[in-house]
Design a protein that fits this description.
The protein has helices at 2-14, 76-87, 100-103, 108-111, 128-136, 156-175, 198-212, 234-238, 259-268, 291-302, 315-330, 333-350, 367-377, 388-397, 399-413, 421-432, and strands spanning 33-36, 48-51, 67-71, 91-96, 119-122, 142-147, 183-187, 217-223, 243-246, 253-254, 278-282, 289-290, 308-311. The chain is an alpha/beta fold and 434 residues long. The strands form three sheets. Strands 1-2-5-4-3-6-7-8-11 form a nine-stranded mixed beta sheet, sandwiched between helices. β7 (183-187), α7 (198-212) and β8 (217-223) form a beta-alpha-beta unit. It starts with a helix and ends with a helix. The model is unreliable at 11-45, 52-60 and 400-434 (pLDDT under 50).
């Protein structure tokens, strides 16, 4: 299994261009809370606690009479939506799998500030009946449900359980006569326009069911990329490692959007009729940015001279085919999932996450602004941990091993590509020139 682990490390590290796999770091919280119990079944399936903020007490405007329910509230975008909903004065319900994640000491850095003014409800989103009981028990009627649910790994089983079924459960609850929500906002993904991955297909399946029903109006928001998705190499370069580029560094382009401004755009869908019953792509204000341009910006923010290593994109095909062959032969779920991880890695290494339509660009915060902030104040704890620093150091230190090992794996799985002397010389010279 050592080979599998090494290949997986490369794949996970390579998903540094855009993010699909997010890993949440431990944090601490100390927060005064007031407990309250929603009316529930005799089995007490769920309960809530409220983070108290004096400035939000006694809100009397019209928004206070509307409840916004956010599923996936503890995620990178979910927590931003919670904060924006509270800011707008809505009765904000943040659904979580466990109250401990928010109210334990470990919750402080992630949720202590952003959840102030929200009611945090523990509920199992995989259980449609429990969700319905939860939403029907809220004293102020539910106006809008916002789903920020997303599989943390992207494998078929996880994607269909979360991106499809759990999200569908939220819709089922909203449509129930006891709830009668008005609007549903879905955080989807720009990459669904070219669905080659299980996670994209699961999202599209739900989008189809959402559009097919008539009980709620809806808005599907497909962001290009998040800031955290293109920030994972900062610590690596600050520690002296080279920035890893795929291909020539210009294979893909993007214009990511800040999480706070994406949250604004999503909640604008509640009141903007032009965003009703539509699928909308949305990116940030930047011009098209290649990975090399992102690397230059990150080095500038860190006050460092740019230093790069280059990895060939075709390595993904080698890894995908290796895992898939063994998965097919052994019927092994781990290997099947590993092959999907590799497909995810390849997708985000070769596909643009970019919109250039002015109508599909929103916000004022640039990626350079973000890099300047995290370089001076520290990384957002939601930014995924990357293995790219290890990969960059290995390629930088041992280019000959890379030149031999990577092609060897390729030719083992693609015998029809067995090299001539000339092609092998070209491959070697390419790596030696890094």
């Amino acid at each position: 299994m050592r080979l599998c682990e090494c290949l997986l490390l490369l794949v996970i590290g390579s998903i540094g261009v855009f993010d699909s796999l997010a890993f949440v770091l431990p944090i601490k919280q100390v927060e005064k809370v007031a407990s309250l119990r929603l009316k529930a079944s005799s089995r007490d399936l769920f309960f809530a606690q409220e983070i108290v903020e004096a400035s939000n007490q006694g809100t009397k405007d019209s928004n206070a009479q509307k409840t916004v329910v956010i599923a996936g509230a503890t995620g990178y975008i979910g927590k931003a939506v919670v904060a924006e909903s509270v800011k707008r004065g809505y009765n904000t319900i943040a659904l979580v799998r466990s109250l401990d994640k928010v109210f334990s000491e470990e919750g402080q850095r992630l949720y202590g500030e952003t959840f102030k003014g929200a009611k945090v409800v523990q509920v199992d989103v995989s259980d449609a009946d429990q969700l319905t009981k939860c939403m029907s028990a809220i004293d102020i009627p539910v106006d809008t449900i916002v789903s920020c649910l997303a599989s943390p790994v992207g494998t078929k089983k996880e994607a269909y359980a979360i991106d499809y079924q759990a999200t569908l459960n939220c819709l089922i609850a909203g449509r129930d006569p006891a709830v009668k929500a008005r609007h549903f906002i879905l955080l989807s993904a720009f990459c669904c326009r070219r669905p080659l991955l299980q996670l994209q297909q699961a999202k599209l399946k739900f989008e189809g069911e959402l559009a097919a029903q008539n009980d709620l109006t809806w808005s599907v928001v497909r962001p290009t990329a998040f800031f955290k998705s293109v920030s994972g190499q900062l610590e690596g370069i600050q520690n002296g490692n080279p920035y890893v580029l795929f291909g020539d560094g210009a294979v893909t382009r993007c214009n990511p959007i800040a999480e706070s401004e994406l949250a604004e755009y999503m909640l604008n869908c509640m009141t903007d009729e032009s965003k009703c019953n539509k699928i909308m792509n949305i990116g940030g204000p930047d011009k098209p940015l290649t990975n090399k341009m992102l690397g230059d910006m990150m080095h500038e923010a860190a006050g460092l001279e740019p230093r790069y290593v280059y990895a060939p994109t075709w390595i993904f095909d080698s890894i995908i085919n290796t895992f898939q062959v063994f998965a097919t032969l052994t019927k092994n779920d781990f290997l099947e999932d590993a092959a999907e991880y590799a497909r995810i890695g390849k997708y985000y290494a070769v596909e643009d996450m970019l919109t250039t339509d002015p109508e599909e660009k929103y916000g004022k915060i640039s990626i350079q602004d973000h890099y300047n902030t995290i370089a001076s104040q520290g990384q957002d704890p939601f930014t995924p941990i990357r293995a790219t620093a290890f990969i960059g150091k290995a390629i930088d230190a041992f280019p000959i091993i890379g030149a031999i090992g990577i092609p060897a794996t390729l030719f083992a799985t693609h015998p029809e590509l067995a090299p001539t002397q000339t092609s092998l010389q070209i491959a070697l010279s390419g790596f030696l020139s890094l």
